[in-house]
Amino acid sequence: xxxxxxxxxxxxxxxxxxxxxxxxxxxxxxxxxxxxxxxxxxxxxxxxxxxxxxxxxxxxxxxxxxxxxxxxxxxxxxxxxxxxxxxxxxxxxxxxxxxxxxxxxxxxxxxxxxxxxxxxxxxxxxxxxxxxxxxxxxxxxxxxxxxxxxxxxxxxxxxxxxxxxxxxxxxxxxxxxxxxxxxxxxxxxxxxxxxxxxxxxxxxxxxxxxxxxxxxxxxxxxxxxxxxxxxxxxxxxxxxxxxxxxxxxxxxxxxxxxxxxxxxxxxxxxxxxxxxxxxxxxxxxxxxxxxxxxxxxxxxxxxxxxxxxxxxxxxxxxxxxxxxxxxxxxxxxxxxxxxxxxxxxxxxxxxxxxxxxxxxxxxxxxxxxxxxxxxxxxxxxxxxxxxxxxxxxxxxxxxxxxxxxxxxxxxxxxxxxxxxxxxxxxxxxxxxxxxxxxxxxxxxxxxxxxxxxxxxxxxxxxxxxxxxxxxxxxxxxxxxxxxxxxxxxxxxxxxxxxxxxxxxxxxxxxxxxxxxxxxxxxxxxxxxxxxxxxxxxxxxxxxxxxxxxxxxxxxxxxxxxxxxxxxxxxxxxxxxxxxxxxxxxxxxxxxxxxxxxxxxxxxxxxxxxxxxxxxxxxxxxxxxxxxxxxxxxxxxxxxxxxxxxxxxxxxxxxxxxxxxxxxxxxxxxxxxxxxxxxxxxxxxxxxxxxxxxxxxxxxxxxxxxxxxxxxxxxxxxxxxxxxxxxxxxxxxxxxxxxxxxxxxxxxxxxxxxxxxxxxxxxxxxxxxxxxxxxxxxxxxxxxxxxxxxxxxxxxxxxxxxxxxxxxxxxxxxxxxxxxxxxxxxxxxxxxxxxxxxxxxxxxxxxxxxxxxxxxxxxxxxxxxxxxxxxxxxxxxxxxxxxx
Length: 883
Fold this sequence. Notes:
The protein is mostly beta strands. It folds into four domains: 2-83, no CATH class; 85-188, Sandwich (Immunoglobulin-like); 201-314, TonB-dependent receptor, plug domain (Ferric Hydroxamate Uptake Protein, Chain A, domain 1, Beta Complex); 315-882, TonB-dependent receptor, beta-barrel domain (Maltoporin, Chain A, Beta Barrel), CATH 2.40.170. Helix content is 7%, strand content 52%. The two termini are 34 Å apart. The relative contact order is 0.10.
């Protein structure tokens, strides 16, 4: 090594004998004769050689004149040297599959590397190793074979070597093999014929390849969730930016999103999050607690009540396969206009997971403070009135414990997730704007810190407990069982409802709900190419909705700041909704190219209602029970035209129970539980869908068209006297087209997008005419595009856009209060690997576009104080690291 580095100074330390000190034996600029003299003078294996640039000239000392030093010091330095295995050469050999890269060492084998994937690059890091190549400080070769852009071996830091293999069209296949010379890596380019098999469980409740399912499905993996959460921690907004057919993003706490014009059922690990009293159901956990999200677009009854728009199944974090993996993340966000101090937010996240023998675990903690929002014109955006996520503080705790038994044939798992979303803001929407002519945007009104007396601050609490059991081979079948419990408490914002005759008070809406239930399913093979999934579901839901009433005098004299709770009145009767569902779902692979599937579900249940007095305190109504039942089925076919292209068609039914509380809140005269609950008869939706999917190596695309109809659709009409919505049953039909495209052209580039168009009509009671459904249900055209580049193996950049089109058809025919105007938003995300972590930066609304979101435009038709602008340019910076 000394003879290979003529430009450096060498220091040799001779260690022998007992401890009397550590001495420099010689220091000298290295010339050829010096190197020879050093080598001849210190041939002993205990000599340690170090090199430094720009040395100071000193005479060479003879080892004979040096005192002896301690063997203890000798052992320490020997240990330090021995821990760092020297890689002295890197060789590339051609193989039938691609390449063999051999890292040669002087002593011992290298440790097994840890690997990560960044874009088209596979990065392997080897601990306790240093590069000691003969002529270079690193090894690199470009385009060694077709499909491999480069292979590089570099020193990552003082104790780690990094091997980076970059593929041309995808991540290369790399196999690590111990070698007598050191370590060998077998490298093969990404094959266009070999695609990663994407598994989906939500569509059929069993694991199936997504290409074999006759439904439109969107899967959002962990990597994409992490990437999108750099822009926003709001899970509904992330879904809106990635799922065709879902309502546009609004960063709103309470606004419910529709999927293909109807409400989807939302699950966390299979546990239902919707309540019978409609309320936003997706914002129920932090993004850091999510492993992946599976979305079935279109009606489905596979999980029972509620899936008339589809199914959104949020699957929580899975345990690491290593003994322990620890990850931490810190972040900060702010509006980029004037970097106003009130707009600053921060986040802290921590996770610990691992596997020890047959036990695995996950602990995930997060705390997020979201600052106030400013629009592109630099004006503060109201938080109350818009129910914005601005000025909120969220806590999330996820815990998982799993045990594998009987050689992994059986598994037990316990999961707990607690989510707390509290509101700190006192930034109301100024009601004076309602009197302004035209359509001005809403104006913020700061009333000071709110003081709630004898009442909870505005908060959304959600706790989910579930216990899962799996037996992979029970007499030839696979059994899965689940027990769950969910507790929901939502305390909304205060509202001055004194202009509503039925209330005439300062109030806020409160929802309390408890749900518990279980699922049991058995997947039984019928013969080699067919199977039957059968089982039973049970759900019991208790719901209480009420209005908290605050002292109006104290509210007025404190400038709307002090809210003293003086009463609580029920919005409707407390009630229990109980249901049992029996189901069977079969699949038959008739040939390698043709598969059929179909299923049946019978649901029965009842509503148990307590005695109550209407919230205007005018009518006392005796409680009672109301039974309901229905049968729904589905059928589908998938035909592979080629190995790359498949056609699918399906007919599926979904059903839902309308909100009982809305039916009970302001009942008509002479109402009784026995005869007056026709409004809550189940809504059944028939859905027809045709689609085509294709995977051509580095191109993936899909197109689907759908049409669904319901003879007993659920509409809402606003009762101005009561200040609430009434249920209105009416025939509805919704239809549309959706498309997706993704392309990886090579050289680290990726691009693609989604497109969704939908329309819908309803027929008012007593007529045969159809009118456009309102834009609360039917979204305008939504199109997304993205362009992503792996600029270097450690640096990644992404531009993404979303376009929301205009919609005036419903306005022109009197359904919507205003026409929806189009808008266009561009976001930017970049990430850079630094050390053991990743630094990420996101800029939301990159070009600082001033616009009103679609739902705020629609609400603005009822008053300018609801016409709330979207945030302007915002920046978020995060650093996450493993340790």
